[in-house]
Design a protein that fits this description.
376 residues; alpha/beta; Rossmann fold; Arc Repressor Mutant, subunit A; four-stranded parallel β-sheet; 15 helices
Length: 376
């Protein structure tokens, strides 16, 4: 546990490696993390694919134009805008807007609200939580019997949402604008699964539930699902932009870091708090403060980069300063991908001392027993 804050001139995520699975806003998220000092590993888990055949969207639009709409649900900003752009291409944008204007408009979040307002439309209600579940609960407080409701999907069918509306007596029109699809190249995701199982990343970020589901599927296909889940329950933090996004991981018993508001900036801030507090260890050794964060150690305010293995050994020794760990114990803790030879421990200890400079004297050899981090 951290006991003091990072020096102001050292970026807070120095030493931490963070995986990014986003597709559409990957560059923005990666930039936010990099500016805070993180090493970013990108592995896009989804791609947004416009409907190759606009027939279904056109049919849904025709249904909306055929008779007045009582309610309209916008799930995403990009989806709502794309719908209007498609209508513009078909020459029916003005007619569609005339159908939307008198309807009661519900938006899942601020981006959907912004898309509505930019089209000259005004929303009736939008949940602060940006949750589809809360949006549905609010809709069900209204008398929906016989009402016509258009639901713009958010990249995947919404069967539970639509079913609940239909059970309330509504005539629901599904409006499919785009679909989430797995990436064409799964190699980066396979590497990400390995990185999580070996704890060579400190955290992984998700901005959509389909991205989570794709990673889980890739882990299952490679035979490493259980190991990956164990990593996410342990040393690797999972950060999700919202509760819906975190749902598939919660089903596997993974506790996720979730911001109060579904924003990339908020996601980065809450992840930074998690990594710099709960997942950072501060100890005093050799009359110096050692702040161990990811694969770096900040010594009296100066960051020192370590190899992944050396950092793992230092973390193991720092868990209980003064306690002697045998070579076998260090192999178990610092070689999660499989124990190596005991001489590898000696080599890593030597490199760790060299990297730490004068502070390396705190890593002591106890003859015929093992190694320890000198306690104050």
């Amino acid at each position: 546990m951290a006991e003091s804050s990072m020096p102001s001139d050292v970026p807070p995520l120095t030493g931490f490696t963070v995986g990014v699975t986003a597709s559409r806003r990957r560059e923005e998220l990666s930039s936010l993390l990099s500016r805070r000092g993180a090493t970013v590993v990108e592995a896009p888990a989804v791609r947004i694919v416009p409907l190759a055949d606009d027939r279904h969207l056109w049919q849904a639009t025709e249904e909306c134009l055929a008779a007045p709409l009582d309610y309209v649900v916008a799930s995403t900003g990009i989806g709502f805008r794309s719908w209007l752009e498609a209508a513009d291409g078909w020459g029916v944008r003005a007619t569609l807007r005339d159908r939307l204007t008198p309807a009661r408009l519900f938006a899942r979040g601020p981006k959907a609200v912004g898309a509505m307002r930019s089209a000259g439309l005004g929303e009736v209600w939008s949940p602060r939580s940006e949750s589809s579940a809360e949006l549905l609960t609010q809709l069900l407080t209204e008398n929906l019997a016989g009402r016509r409701i258009a639901v713009q999907e958010h990249g995947a069918p919404m069967p539970d949402f639509v079913s609940a509306l239909r059970k309330a007596g509504a005539d629901v029109i599904d409006v499919p604008v785009y679909r989430w699809m797995p990436p064409a190249d799964l190699a980066p995701l396979r590497k990400m699964v390995q990185a999580i199982t070996s704890a060579s990343v400190d955290a992984i970020t998700f901005t959509s539930a389909p991205a989570v589901l794709t990673l889980l599927e890739v882990a299952k296909d490679t035979g490493h699902l259980e190991q990956m889940i164990a990593g996410l329950r342990g040393p690797v933090a999972a950060a999700c932009v919202g509760t819906i996004c975190a749902g598939p991981l919660a089903d596997h018993g993974v506790t996720c870091v979730i911001p109060e508001r579904s924003r990339l900036g908020a996601l980065v801030r809450v992840l930074t708090d998690e990594l710099t507090t709960a997942r950072t260890r501060v100890v005093r050794a050799a009359n110096r403060e050692l702040r161990i964060c990811g694969t770096a150690v900040v010594i009296d305010g100066m960051p020192v980069r370590l190899s992944q293995r050396a950092a793992a050994v230092l973390r193991a020794l720092a868990e209980e300063p003064g306690r002697v760990l045998t070579r076998a114990e260090l192999l178990t803790r610092a070689w999660p991908d499989g124990p190596g030879e005991e001489h590898a421990v000696e080599t890593t200890i030597g490199r760790l001392r060299e990297a730490l400079g004068p502070a390396g004297a705190a890593v002591q050899t106890v003859i015929k027993r093992g190694y320890r981090l000198a306690a104050p």
